């Protein structure tokens, strides 16, 4: 018994060990099954949480939009009920145009002037407090006012961001007017304009020291720009024009025998001319006889008592920008062109405009709450406010909440992304500097934001940055030769893992990025491939080859888990959540390649293209253009003499006829060569377009058919102008000559009379006298000459021409435009001028992206104006519509057309 017992014990032990081993395997299998099920349940919970968040966001946004509309109605009611009480005379707004009838003052002007709001405080508290409660992550003060900007370095001059508090769609950034779309009754100061009371105090102090000139200055408007600061920004920029010397001149201390001015001179009061100095060159301008006895250089021309409001922005920037088209839950789509961010409601066909930027907007990101928007710009010309920076603003009230990184970036802000797994508390930005810096910002921590960290991203181009929607602190960047997975730890350190392609084809560019509902990363590349990167890894788990012919520019994740991709081949592909192709759609070639795809309402898609168009549609119906624009430098603009239409032409060879009431393109035609000048005949039946090589063409305005082509010289046609009686056409060329044509009874037939020679530089502007008997012209070297058009001879007798009345005001060098030239301006800085039909206003456009509104004529050297921004590059043309109420301006490099309304 004792000998057998150990053997039995050993066998029993082995059996028990085997049973335990089998039980352990079963336990492990059970754990693995449970783990897999748990992962699926976690993914499902994450998806449900995101869906609930989206529903809450939609409810918040809808409520905010309703409140905005209610506040707008409330404001309109208050304006109408208080309008009769404001009749008669009113107190002029500080820094604004006063001295006129009280009927010209708006509620916003009175608010800006006195700091008191005529709207009910009850309405104000309701709108503000309710909006504040909509977003618990944003401090209450951020909706009521914008905190002052804090620089990151003590050496930088501090600027008060309260001056940039609110930017509205219908006010000049240099004016005090407030948007009619705003829900907040707070005044809207300019981002570069000093506080109204501060200006008034310093202004009165200067007046007191200059011998009691308060009465003369009580009705003046906004100050125009200074030589050192062409925009007229800041208090020093606004007041430096009025130096002690100028004030002495204004007080009458200068000699009556020799009136002088920094850039305009009249040696003796009996002289019948003045000398205007442009770029150091004196231009002799003869005075009309009616002005001889009363004209004084020291008089001040007040700014007009009416202003401009941005009514519509035509165009879209899709040619070189990505991820710049979003649908908001309120029904508005948000995109940008030039320095304007546009909120467009397709159903109501209305626009609102955010005008806080000072130069080209290059990037856009929408906060997870769908109420806040971040937009980044490139650097401009005008000091600190034009340095590259990011603005955070509210899409309902259009109030600026914070300015991020002013002075911290060296290049334009090309990519932006809010964090998504932590309710958007931080912001990532890519600086398009040589080092392609990625920076992470706590944008709501303090005024001006707090930079958490920054590091070099890539030596090559970066096209996108995105936060992971589920994993906190995870960031992905893509671009040339790289995809990088970044981790931001609790200490603010960034760690980088490069994507590994292993055996898959490594593309030259990774061009598009999106995420699945389970957190996997989906990318598209320049070879037309799609790759899926497993969540939490930097390796490819699935690869779809040659989905597109050419680069994949956009991947849009749909609400149902599917995807839509768009590429350079103009193809839109619909995928299900397993990345199986379900449908396709073709974008017509003349609209351009697909740049960005965004999900609209229901099954609707929004497609931005490389030819600056926005299309709308789905995979069952054809795509319809809702926004169209030019794609290259926009040179020329002309308005229809009878109806609400206008025509534009640019270097992109496109001749486009627009309707200013429906805000749409009537027709577009590629004429085969760059267009430098356009004009519509007085009868409104034909369009003449000047091109290169001396050619100019005639088109039927209804059928857009080419009717005839003419050639004059071998240089570019610079400008064209019909006489008021419609019998003559003047064509100005770069070869220094003006060609005169007789208009025949057949609309497209012109008979050449001859050419006017005498200018020493290219012809820049042309004007006809009201009786169609005399033509005046400006040239590239600022000459002003007069011509007998029927004889093609120069008129040298000033007594013949100095008292003439002119049908148009295109010439920037004339007696009527002396005041548009600030001191030390370069002669090429003023590109275009025009007057309205009733000769109340004069508008000029300059190289700094600004439009200035003067009273007509602006014949005094000290002519005050209202200044407006919206364009980001040189404004090449301005023209009033035939009704004199609307004004159109054409941008150059920004390819936009802005429509303004006189209010």
Q: How does this structure look, described?
A:
The protein has nine helices and 57 strands. The protein is an alpha+beta fold and 903 residues long. It has a domain at 632-900: 7 Propeller (Methylamine Dehydrogenase, Chain H), CATH 2.130.10. The strands form 15 sheets. The protein has a four-stranded antiparallel sheet, with no helix packed on it. It has a four-stranded antiparallel sheet with strand order 6-7-8-9, with no helix packed on it. Residues 171-185, 225-238 have a biased composition (Low complexity).
Write the layout of secondary structure elements.
Layout: H1 5-83, H2 107-114, H3 121-134, H4 140-144, H5 196-209, H6 214-217, H7 234-239, H8 244-250, E1 264-265, E2 273-278, E3 281-286, E4 300-301, E5 308-314, E6 326-327, E7 332-337, E8 340-345, E9 350-354, E10 361-366, E11 372-377, E12 390-394, E13 400-404, E14 413-418, E15 427-431, E16 437-442, E17 450-456, E18 462-467, E19 474-479, E20 482-488, E21 494-498, E22 510-515, E23 521-525, E24 530-533, E25 540-544, E26 552-557, E27 563-567, E28 571-575, E29 581-586, E30 594-599, E31 605-609, E32 614-617, E33 624-627, E34 634-639, E35 645-650, E36 654-659, E37 664-670, E38 677-680, E39 686-690, E40 695-700, E41 706-711, E42 717-722, E43 728-733, E44 738-743, E45 750-756, E46 763-768, E47 775-779, E48 784-788, E49 793-795, H9 798-801, E50 830-835, E51 841-846, E52 850-855, E53 862-863, E54 866-869, E55 875-880, E56 886-891, E57 897-902
Helix pairs in contact: 1-3
């Amino acid at each position: 018994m004792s000998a057998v017992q150990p053997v039995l014990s050993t066998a029993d032990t082995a059996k028990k060990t085997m049973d335990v081993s089998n039980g352990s395997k079963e336990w492990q299998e059970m754990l693995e099954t449970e783990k897999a099920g748990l992962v699926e349940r976690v993914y499902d919970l994450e998806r449900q949480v995101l869906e609930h968040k989206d529903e809450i966001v939609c409810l918040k946004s809808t409520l905010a939009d309703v409140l905005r509309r209610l506040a707008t109605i409330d404001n309109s009611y208050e304006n109408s009920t208080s309008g009769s009480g404001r009749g008669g005379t009113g107190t002029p707004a500080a820094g604004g145009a006063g001295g006129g009838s009280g009927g010209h003052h708006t509620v916003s002007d009175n608010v800006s002037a006195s700091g008191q709001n005529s709207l009910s405080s009850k309405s104000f508290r309701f709108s503000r407090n309710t909006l504040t409660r909509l977003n618990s992550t944003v401090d209450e003060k951020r909706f009521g006012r914008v905190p002052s900007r804090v620089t990151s370095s003590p050496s930088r001059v501090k600027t008060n961001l309260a001056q940039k508090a609110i930017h509205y769609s219908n006010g000049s950034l240099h004016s005090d007017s407030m948007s009619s779309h705003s829900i907040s009754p707070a005044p809207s100061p300019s981002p570069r304009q000093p506080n109204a009371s501060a200006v008034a105090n310093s202004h009165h102090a200067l007046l007191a020291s200059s011998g009691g000139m308060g009465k003369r200055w009580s009705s003046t408007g906004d100050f125009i720009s200074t030589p050192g600061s062409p925009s007229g920004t800041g208090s020093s920029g606004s007041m430096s024009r009025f130096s002690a010397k100028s004030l002495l001149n204004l007080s009458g201390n200068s000699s009556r025998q020799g009136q002088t001015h920094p850039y305009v001179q009249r040696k003796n009061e009996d002289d019948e001319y003045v000398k205007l100095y442009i770029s150091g060159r004196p231009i002799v301008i003869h005075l009309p006889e009616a002005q001889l006895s009363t004209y004084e250089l020291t008089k001040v021309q007040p700014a007009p008592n009416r202003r401009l409001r941005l009514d519509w922005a035509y165009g879209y920037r899709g040619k070189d920008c990505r991820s710049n088209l979003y649908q908001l839950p309120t029904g508005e789509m948000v995109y940008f062109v030039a320095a304007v961010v546009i909120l467009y409601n397709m159903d109501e066909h209305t626009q609102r405009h955010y005008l806080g930027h000072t130069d080209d907007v290059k990037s856009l990101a929408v906060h997870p709450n769908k109420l806040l928007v971040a937009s980044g710009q490139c650097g401009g010309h005008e000091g600190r406010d034009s340095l590259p920076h990011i603005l955070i603003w509210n899409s309902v009230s259009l109030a600026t909440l914070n300015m991020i990184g002013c002075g911290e970036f060296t290049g334009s802000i090309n990519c932006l992304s809010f964090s998504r797994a932590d309710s958007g508390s931080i912001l990532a930005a890519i600086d398009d500097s040589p080092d392609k810096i990625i920076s992470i910002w706590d944008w709501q921590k303090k005024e001006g934001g707090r930079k958490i960290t920054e590091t070099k991203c890539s030596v090559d181009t970066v096209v996108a940055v995105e936060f992971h929607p589920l994993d906190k602190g995870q960031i992905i960047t893509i671009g040339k030769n790289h995809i990088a997975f970044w981790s931001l730890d609790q200490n603010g350190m960034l760690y980088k893992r490069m994507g590994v392609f292993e055996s898959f084809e490594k593309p030259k560019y990774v061009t598009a990025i999106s995420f699945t509902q389970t957190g996997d990363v989906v990318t598209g590349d320049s070879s037309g491939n799609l790759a899926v990167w497993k969540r939490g890894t930097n390796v490819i788990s699935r690869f779809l080859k040659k989905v597109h012919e050419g680069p994949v520019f956009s991947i849009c994740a749909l609400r149902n888990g599917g995807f839509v991709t768009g590429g350079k081949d103009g193809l839109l592909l619909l995928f299900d959540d397993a990345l199986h192709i379900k449908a396709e759609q073709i974008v017509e070639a003349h609209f351009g390649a697909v740049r960005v795809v965004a999900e609209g309402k229901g099954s609707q898609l929004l497609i931005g293209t490389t030819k600056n168009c926005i299309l709308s549609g789905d995979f069952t119906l054809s795509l319809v253009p809702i926004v169209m624009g030019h794609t290259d430098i926009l040179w020329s603009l002309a308005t229809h003499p009878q109806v609400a239409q206008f025509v534009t032409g640019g270097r992109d060879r496109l001749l486009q006829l627009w309707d200013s009431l429906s805000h749409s393109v009537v027709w577009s035609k590629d004429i085969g060569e760059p267009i430098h000048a356009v004009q519509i005949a007085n009868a409104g039946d034909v369009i003449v377009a000047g091109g290169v090589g001396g050619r100019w063409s005639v088109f039927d305005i209804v059928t857009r058919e080419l009717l005839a082509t003419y050639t004059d010289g071998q240089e570019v046609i610079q400008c064209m102008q019909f006489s008021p009686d419609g019998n003559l056409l003047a064509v100005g060329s770069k070869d220094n000559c003006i060609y005169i044509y007789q208009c025949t009874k057949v609309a497209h037939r012109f008979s050449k009379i001859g050419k006017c020679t005498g200018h020493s530089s290219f012809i820049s502007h042309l004007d006809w006298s009201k009786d169609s008997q005399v033509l005046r012209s400006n040239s590239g070297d600022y000459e002003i000459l007069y011509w007998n058009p029927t004889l093609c001879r120069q008129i040298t007798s000033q007594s013949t021409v100095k008292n003439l009345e002119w049908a148009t005001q295109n010439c920037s060098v004339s007696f009527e435009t002396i005041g548009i030239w600030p001191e030390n301006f370069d002669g090429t800085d003023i590109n275009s001028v025009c007057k309205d039909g009733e000769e109340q206003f004069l508008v000029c456009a300059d190289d700094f992206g600004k439009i200035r509104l003067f009273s007509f004529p602006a014949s005094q050297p000290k002519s005050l104006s209202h200044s407006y921004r919206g364009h980001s590059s040189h404004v090449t043309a301005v023209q009033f519509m035939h009704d004199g109420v609307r004004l159109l301006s054409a941008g150059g490099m920004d390819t936009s057309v802005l429509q303004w309304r006189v209010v």
